[in-house]
Specification:
The protein is an alpha+beta fold and 131 residues long. The protein contains three helices and eight strands; from the N terminus they run H-E-E-H-E-E-H-E-E-E-E. The protein has helices at residues 5-8, 30-40, 71-83, and strands at residues 14-19, 22-27, 46-50, 58-60, 94-100, 104-105, 116-117, 121-125.
Length: 131
């Protein structure tokens, strides 16, 4: 991991954040979301996206293939997914879908950034930017 995650994000289709020792990647646009999810992420990484609203795909790297991320890391990644979405201005909590990258697919004919999920969990969080 680089010392300055913000500088590591320059020129890429995603932002790189560090949360409690985990790399969190945040897509910057529809085509970049596709590249992040299907080109950069590994199948055992954790994928997040706000439910029912356009927004960034968020990937938490999981090189140790943990069966579950620490709750604080998962919550923080979900907050970032909510923040980097059209649901940012929500007055209450926002639902964020969470699954393994292996459970995300891109059916033929889907628009850039649009995906289908085989199975997922949901977490409700307030949208918050990284401090």
């Amino acid at each position: 991991m680089r010392d300055n995650p913000e500088m590591a994000s320059k020129g890429r289709g995603f932002r790189l954040e560090a949360v409690d020792g985990f790399e969190v990647l945040v897509g910057k646009g529809d085509a970049d979301n596709d590249r992040l999810t299907f080109g950069v992420a590994d199948p055992h990484d954790v994928w997040l996206h706000v439910a029912g609203s356009p927004g960034s795909h968020v990937v938490v790297r999981n090189p140790d293939r943990l069966s579950e991320l620490p709750p604080a890391v998962l919550r923080r990644a979900a907050e970032l997914a909510a923040w980097h979405s059209k649901a940012r201005e929500a007055r209450g909590k926002v639902e964020v879908h969470v699954c393994r990258v292996a459970d995300v697919s891109k059916p033929r004919g889907f628009a850039p950034g649009e995906v289908a999920l085989r199975r997922w969990d949901a977490i409700k969080v307030y949208p918050r930017a990284l401090k």
